[in-house]
Write a structure and sequence with these properties.
Oligomer: single chain
CATH architecture: 3-Layer(aba) Sandwich
Shape: globular
CATH class: Alpha Beta
CATH topology: Rossmann fold
Number of helices: 7
CATH superfamily: P-loop containing nucleotide triphosphate hydrolases
Helix content: 25-40%
Bound molecules: adenosine-5'-triphosphate
Number of strands: 9
Radius of gyration: 18 Å
Length: about 250
């Protein structure tokens, strides 16, 4: 049936997974990490992903970010399926549409904070002066003064390093940001500051964010929470009155 012109159909999800499976190894050593995961995250939504250690959270976000191939099911970012793309198209999709922050931040030790943040723009071919100016402006919004922007990661606190990693994931204005345990190593105030920045970026940019967490202190930053157990998402619940800071 055709919908009447006045009915607004919902936007398609920005992150879409249906029946995703993944097994590591084979034979007697096989580990079924994902057993059929269904998940949808929409523009403007911050989805938390929680569950016990070993239930498959990192495997799932690695597949969504195109860093790991799935065995079965469907998975799309903005309507595109990583597994159907050539290596060059995958790199382009990652560079254009995705930002990720994993547990080990992978900041480059020999570069300053601002150079780390500018790196994705330089890789995408943006002129150095423009890339550095954009990176400095974003770090400024993240509370970094000029001196902190010129510091190498080893001279920054854990919370500051986490914010540099976040800025690097956002500087190219991606549609999707995926974070694996962004606050696990941080004290309450630093974790709050990081989640505040993530929340602000969702509100201003209508991004889809997927944040893996064990940390109940940050549950009020999410719109919904997907509970994962033994390789499946067993329940998705709406979170009451998510924290709504000023948009970035
Ligand atoms: N490279 C690998 N080779 C073999 N097994 C793996 C590999 N990576 C993960 N696994 C296994 O797959 C399952 C899911 O792991 P995964 O890291 O996705 O879980 P997780 O929920 O992120 O755990 P945690 O909360 O501890 O980070 C676990 O049983 C794990 O031991």
């Amino acid at each position: 049936m055709v919908a009447p012109a006045s009915v607004r159909l919902p936007d398609p999800p920005v992150i879409f997974c249906a029946g995703v499976t993944k097994t590591y190894g084979d034979g007697a050593l096989a580990v079924a990490a994902l057993r059929g995961v269904d998940l949808e995250v929409h523009a403007g939504e911050l989805m938390l992903l929680a569950g016990p250690s070993g239930c498959g959270k990192t495997t799932l976000v690695s597949i969504i970010a195109g860093l790991l191939a799935r065995d079965g099911g469907r998975c799309q970012i903005d309507g595109l399926d990583f597994d159907a793309l050539t290596a060059r198209e995958k790199t382009r999709l990652r560079g254009r549409s995705l930002g990720f922050v994993f547990q080990s931040l992978h900041l480059l030790a020999s570069l300053t904070a601002v150079e780390n943040v500018a790196a994705p723009l330089l890789i995408a071919g943006v002129r150095q002066s423009t890339a550095l100016a954009q990176a400095a402006a974003l770090l400024g919004e993240f509370g970094f003064d000029r001196r902190m922007q010129q510091a190498r990661p080893a001279r920054l606190s854990g919370g500051q390093q986490q914010r540099v990693a976040l800025a690097r994931a956002m500087v190219h204005d991606p549609r999707v940001i995926v974070c694996d345990e962004p606050t696990s190593a941080l004290d309450g105030a630093s974790g709050h500051a990081v989640m505040d920045l993530l929340r602000r970026s969702v509100l201003s940019r209508r991004r889809a964010l997927l944040v893996v967490t064990h940390d109940p202190r940050i549950f009020n930053f999410g719109d919904r929470i997907a509970h994962m157990e033994d390789g499946r998402i067993t329940r998705v619940e709406n979170l009451p009155s998510p924290h709504s800071p000023r948009p970035l």
